[in-house]
Amino acid sequence: MIIKTENIVKIFKVGDSVVKALDGVSFNVDEGDMVAVTGTSGSGKTTLLNIIGCLGKPDSGKYFLTDVDVSNLSKDQLAETRNRRIGFVFQSFNLISRMSSLENVELPLLYAGADDAKSRAVESLKSVRLFERMNHEPNQLSGGESQRVSIARALVTKPSILLADEPTGNLDSKTSGEILELFAKLNNEGLTVLIVTHDDDVAARCKRVIRMMDGKIISDKRNGRVSRE
Stretch 32-47: mean pLDDT, rounded? Predict the structure, then answer.
């Protein structure tokens, strides 16, 4: 088991109102699984992803990443855990516009003080079939290429979990399929993948689908036959 949450609660204040974004969320994810978390806007799925990604802490409840109780970590410990064990992929790619693909992928390693940042970044770009585009800047790339650069950047630290927040939201259907095939390949190689999506077609490509509504899990099912075509 790589992820375990126990009765996670997260509350936000909006003006004079109190919004319970997560209301007693409990679930587990085994190592090597590929899970979609889906639901309408405001269901709590992105808030849950942020907590799993160590970008925030629950107001109550427990979150264990393997054997570490993440809910008790300090900000510095959260940052270290996040940088060492978790890779992130976002809908908007989040690439730095004046940096090449190679430089964008190198960044997490440079922050960590790695001596072999360039060689590892090159290998990561090769793994997503973008070696020939490594000197191109984001404005010279297609949407699918930009997303593959962001995936290479997420993978360069060799994380144990890949978290993706609406990773196909800015892509056409053909390119979306290619990105999901890449996720499936990485998952088949042993990487744990968790995708937040509102798209049922994306969820159908995962092994398991968790549906949320009003901060609660309303269903948690395994796909009988995973669609990857």
Answer: 95
